[in-house]
Amino acid sequence: MLRFLKQIEKFASILMLGIMCFCITLQVFFRYVLSNALEWPEEVSRYAFLCAVFLGASFAAAEGRHLEISVLKNLFGRTVKLAVTLISAAATVVFCGIMCVWGVRLVEFIRESGQTASSIPLDMYLLYVVVPVSMALMAVNTVRYTLESVRKIRRETASAEDIYKEMSSSW
Is the pTM of this model over 0.85? Predict the structure, then answer.
């Protein structure tokens, strides 16, 4: 099930980036070739970019590809590595929880206010749903990846050479 969700996140993020590129290309063509700018492509590309970023962040959490300072984790041994991994994962999950709660409140507020997009016939709350959904997925993905990392850390007996190799490959 989690693999299926990961594939959906990946596909949706790629689709949003494709829509953004198409809209920007279309806008450039109409503006500079036909001298007749369209109103909607800029807005659609902005919303597609936001969706791609939030869904991409969740996908990156599933892959363990968010930025981290691995020197601290790898310099002091397994115990510190485990502690830093757990602390950073807990901070990420707390952040995702806060963003999820406030995202739901924002969606409810925008839905109740009846806001619509300025150049396309779409209720704005539908666009903001991506925030709580992607943050909930990111929290789940962070927990799953952290559990895998903890299992790996407990099993490892890495040498100093392995640690330096890992550190240099992460740059």
Answer: no
